[in-house]
Amino acid sequence: DDPYYFLQLGPMPETQGTTATDMSKLPLVPSLLSLDTDGRVIRLDSFSKILAPNLRCGWITAPAYIQDRMQILNESTILQPSGLTQGVISRLLNDTWGIEGWIEHLNALRAAYAARRNLFVTLARKHLTGLATFTVPTAGMFLWMRVDLGDAATDATAMPRLLDAMKKGGVMMAPDMPFRVANAAAAAAPERYLRAAFALAETDMFEPALERLARAIASIRGSELQDTQSVVCAEPIETTAPAPIAVNSST
After folding, report:
1. CB atoms within 10 A of CB 208
2. Distance CA 111, CA 191 (A)
3. Which of these, 27, 36, 93, 109, has the minimum number of CB atoms within 10 Å of its CB?
């Protein structure tokens, strides 16, 4: 199941600002399917991440005998995916773009996402140093960050209070809870994470969103950051919530 395979962004060019790499010169890493010599790999891909989210259509690559059984299962459950969606995709790929146009689209998409990733990471380093840590993503559309809540990290109410502060401050990101393993150890873990989608918001909203996140984190940590963080991190959250900036995604 590899819906983000075609969104490989490559490493962030540390010396080139937010400029994206020419993706036609950055080959995709080998997939498990490309390494399979025994017909053991069943690969699932999705057009939702690389063409249009609401298409909700994908494709399966598998040995013929498995495809036959999956077809029977498909027909006995949902009959088939939307015929209209399949027709639109088929017309676009086969009659309009062709394979060369498809590859050109994917490279343009990768370049656009890489530029967004580069800008978002640059601004995150500017505003969240000392407040959150993260690894620069080399694929996909998300930046996962570990939030440093200081002494409040062990407080079970810290994350809900942070989300409330973010809501009041006008920024939305996906919390870690829905992605955690459902057990007591995971629930009690002091580490707290947020997932930001750099593919969703307009790029001129990146900096305001990260400024608002920094203020929200600082408000949960308390006064310990007042002397060490930038002025924007020390400002109080506005009493009247500004228009929210959504930096989250359900996909």
Report:
1. 16
2. 32
3. 27
- The sign of the dihedral angle between the CA atoms of 238, 239, 244, 249 is positive
Residues 37-80: tens digit of each pLDDT: 998 999 999 999 999 988 889 999 999 989 999 999 989 998 88
DSSP string, the chain: --TTGGGB-----TTSTTPPP-GGGSPPPPPHHHH-SSS---EEEESTTTT-GGG--EEEE--HHHHHHHHHHHHHHTSSS-HHHHHHHHIIIIIIIHHHHHHHHHHHHHHHHHHHHHHHHHHHHHHHTTTEEE---SBSSEEEEEE--GGGGG-TTHHHHHHHHHHHHTEE-EESGGGS-SSHHHHH-S-EEEEEETTTS-GGGHHHHHHHHHHHHHHHH-GGGTTTS-HHHHSPPPSSPPPPEE-----
**Considering just the CA atoms, what is the radius of gyration of the chain in Å?**
21
Q: How confident is the model at residue 91 (pLDDT cuts 50, 70, 90)?
A: very high
pTM for the full predicted model: 0.84
